């Protein structure tokens, strides 16, 4: 594969389960030339393709803006569970933070594809009863309005871990057999 055919990607949330899995796949893929991880803490991985920027405040990544150009894709894997959260707090951590980062990336990379990890059950109408689903739906809808080449929302119900992953919730290690069964019975959600 020629260098001009290779892509440069940004991954956020690489110290979490979803982001770590995406990062490992990007590092293994020969079509990916370079990976920039932006995180609050180190992903703990070293690789010739990998560059990492540690940044504490994702609500203001403007100081990083000049370092964020020249990328073809962003895998936005930051996220929090809505369990126990009030809507204003969840909205800020899900919608406000995501749109801030995406707005800066779209200005620097108009040919970028933005890949947002959402969730099964997300409500694109923004009118449903479930708070988290409305907020995720609004986030997806507004990401598609930004001047990216493309914006994608992935809505997994269950995620199968990569064999090399270390950042897994305790139950994942014990219930991996169940995920295999779910893949057979409900492949659309795994």
Determine the structural class based on helices, strands and strand pairing.
alpha/beta
The proportion of residues in beta strands is 15-25%
- Which percent bin holds the helix content? 25-40%
Largest sheet: 6 strands, parallel
Mean pLDDT: 92
Task: Note the run of SSEs as H and E.
Answer: EHEEEHEHEHH
Provide the gyration radius in Å: 17 Å
Structural features:
190 residues; alpha/beta; six-stranded parallel beta sheet; 5 helices; 6 strands; 33% helix
Written description of the protein model:
There is one protein chain. By secondary structure, this protein is α/β, with parallel strands linked by helices. Helices cover 33% and strands 17% of the residues. It has helices spanning 17-28, 87-108, 131-143, 170-174, 176-185, and strands spanning 7-12, 32-39, 50-54, 73-76, 113-117, 150-154. The chain has a six-stranded parallel β-sheet, with helices on both faces. The relative contact order is 0.14. The mean pLDDT is 92.
Break the fold down into its secondary structure elements and pairings.
Blueprint: E1 7-12, H1 17-28, E2 32-39, E3 50-54, E4 73-76, H2 87-108, E5 113-117, H3 131-143, E6 150-154, H4 170-174, H5 176-185
Parallel strand pairs: 1-2, 1-4, 2-3, 4-5, 5-6
